[in-house]
Write a structure and sequence with these properties.
With 496 residues, the protein is α/β, with parallel strands linked by helices. It has helices at residues 3-23, 27-34, 37-49, 54-59, 74-85, 140-145, 207-217, 230-241, 262-274, 373-389, 458-470, 476-480, 485-494; strands at 64-70, 93-96, 149-151, 156-160, 165-168, 173-181, 185-187, 201-203, 222-226, 245-249, 278-280, 285-290, 296-301, 306-308, 311-314, 318-320, 337-338, 350-352, 357-361, 366-368, 400-405, 415-421, 426-431, 437-442, 448-454. One of its GO terms (cellular component) is cytoplasm.
């Protein structure tokens, strides 16, 4: 940078700092420094580090933070990585987290984390972000080395949009230049009055929940899993690894109603039954009862029947954690904080990413929330990249979900599936677990909208996003006559 430019940068920084001190509009400072490009950025981080320099002292006092991420989960870990990649983390980024540990790959909690002790369960620090997508393992040291301040176990309790100020549970007041809301979801709970909080009743969202569940599994004999969704399927499969008597109870007539067709669900249910899992379908919980020791002892169903259990795991959905940011703008249809295609809320310098963001799903022209890790990772990266580079690039997401169960050593059959696209239209299903299954969702114009594959090879899985993204017109009669999954995938591939 030339000395004239450097002087200009200093002038802009102090002008913005003065403005920030007067108005609380801290983002002007970062804007002024960022407008100078890489040189300005370097000046900004040097200033940030030199706390005694006049610009830094005026702007970066104890209360002010240039970039604040609220929530230390999956999206936060990937956002932090993007800040580092752009040289914008050091001394400039603060993460305010409710949890006691740095961001980790949450999917592990109902997979490797629940392996029985003799089957080498996953434990932290093994699965901190970003290892789930082949990236670096960002431990607490990584955050320190990269100059990122992380406030642990100090959730944000209040937010003032006018002054862009946060208050944490320990009483810290932080004025944010740019604020990235990545508070994710919280597990939906059964009401306390029907036994939802009894000892022995578990919910699973974070590593503390998983630790508590693992300690119960070690003593358990009879497990009831409430809910036939992702948590229900993954936890029930894990319980099989501990040789526990396991019953899944849910209100619908088949498992995974959000995604699976009845016929696909039937195949999975049969496989679970072969592993000893029992199903109670179409049933609602009236209450959970406690034994004389105060711990849960049974689930009473609305029809009066009783299912005994010493441990209950509840997986009845998740709710976006919008509090205390409701005033930023909540989407009434899908819940969550409403953002545009660059994750900007209606308030300048406030963004939302991951599970909590209600964003435009461009491909299908609707506002959506996606509660899966691929979106958490990609939305974080997209938001921070567009924020730091001022590129106006719209997020164009292709929905991708997956699961893996019965992965532990010695299981009779490992299960792994992936789904890409939109599960709308009629379906064509091919194959069985012996050896693999595919389901294609096809709309009334014969366009392939969504595709599911169980037990594919990596080459087969890599075809799915291409199909779901380009939505080719397929020959339905030909697809229906496919003699194997390989054959069906080839027919779909040839329509690209
Ligand atoms: C057990 C489990 C298994 C899963 N498995 C899969 C899977 O196999 N595949 C898949 O695609 N997806 C899976 N998911 C979903 C995936 O983990 C989420 O989509 C992803 O974690 C979302 O990332 P996020 O950062 O938006 O939210 P989260 O990862 O939930 O992070 C949010 C963070 O914000 C914190 N927070 C909340 N409120 C505040 C506050 N006021 N102040 C400070 N911090 C706050 C929370 O404590 C949490 O640490 C799973 C989810 C769970 C719970
Ligand atoms: N592989 C994955 O992608 C994965 C794995 C685990 C968790 N998750 C995420 O974690 C969150 C929680 O998962 P989840 O399985 O709890 O949610 P879910 O929405 O997948 O399933 C909820 C299930 O709960 C049942 N249910 C709803 N209300 C009920 C009630 N009152 N009583 C009994 N059953 C009821 C229904 O069977 C429904 O299918 C979701 O965001 C999910 O996407 C994802
Ligand atoms: O995406 C994922 O990350 C973790 C694990 O791979 C991290 O090592 C896991 O189980 C996933 O499904």
């Amino acid at each position: 940078m030339t000395s004239a430019l450097r002087q200009k940068a200093a002038q802009m920084a102090s002008a913005a700092a003065a403005a920030a001190a007067g108005t609380g509009c801290y983002s002007q400072t970062s804007w002024a420094l960022r407008r100078l490009g890489a040189g300005g950025g370097a000046l900004a981080s040097a200033a940030t580090r030199r706390r005694n320099c006049s610009v830094a002292a005026a702007v970066f006092d104890n209360q002010n933070r240039e970039y604040v991420i609220v929530g230390g989960g999956n999206a936060a870990g990937y956002a932090a990585r993007t800040f580092v990649e752009h040289g914008m983390a050091d001394g400039r980024l603060c993460i305010v987290s409710k949890e006691a540990v740095p961001p980790y790959e949450r999917p592990a909690l109902t997979k490797g984390y629940l392996f029985p002790p003799e089957k080498k369960p996953a434990r932290l620090p093994g699965f901190h972000t970003c290892v789930g997508s082949g990236g670096q393992r960002q431990t607490a040291e990584w955050y320190k080395e990269n100059g990122i301040e992380v406030l642990y176990e100090d959730p944000v309790e209040a937010f003032d949009g006018k002054t862009q100020t946060l208050k944490t549970s320990s009483g810290k007041i932080l004025k944010c230049g740019s604020l990235i809301i990545s508070t994710g979801c919280a597990a939906a709970r059964l009401p306390e009055k029907i036994g939802g909080d009894l000892p022995g009743v578990h919910y699973i969202r974070d590593v503390a929940d998983a630790d508590s569940l693992v300690s119960s599994l070690g003593k358990a004999k009879k497990i009831v899993v409430i809910g036939g969704g992702y948590i229900g399927m993954e936890v029930a499969a894990a319980a099989c690894g501990w040789n526990l008597d396991t019953t899944i109870i849910f209100p619908e007539d088949h498992i995974m109603p959000r995604l699976f067709t009845p016929s696909l669900a039937k195949k999975y249910e049969e496989l679970y039954e072969q592993n000893g899992v029992k199903f109670v379908k179409g049933a609602l919980i009236d209450k959970l009862d406690a034994g004389s020791d105060g711990r849960v002892s049974s689930a009473i169903l609305k029809d009066g029947s009783v299912v005994e259990a010493d441990t209950v795991i509840v997986g009845i959905g998740a709710k976006p954690s919008v509090s205390p940011f409701e005033a930023v703008g909540v989407n009434i249809e899908v819940g969550g904080i409403e953002v545009d295609s660059m994750f900007r809320t209606s308030i300048p310098s406030i963004f939302a990413i991951g599970d909590v963001a209600a964003f435009p799903l461009k491909m299908y022209d609707r506002i959506a929330r996606v509660e899966h890790v691929d979106h958490a990772r990609k939305s974080a990266q997209h938001c921070i990249e567009t924020l730091l580079t001022s590129q106006a690039k719209a997020y164009d997401y292709l929905p991708y979900f997956y699961s893996r169960v019965f992965e532990y050593e010695g299981s009779s059959r490992k299960i792994w599936w992936q789904f890409y696209g939109d599960n709308v239209g009629e379906t064509i299903e091919v194959g069985n677990f012996d050896p693999k299954i595919a389901t294609f969702w096809i709309d009334s114009d014969s366009r392939l909208k969504g595709v599911f594959l169980e037990s594919g090879t990596s080459e087969e899985f890599s075809l799915l996003p291409k199909l779901a993204r380009s939505q080719p017109i397929v020959d339905k009669a030909k697809l229906k006559s496919a003699t194997s999954v390989e054959d069906a995938l080839e027919i779909a591939r040839s329509s690209l």
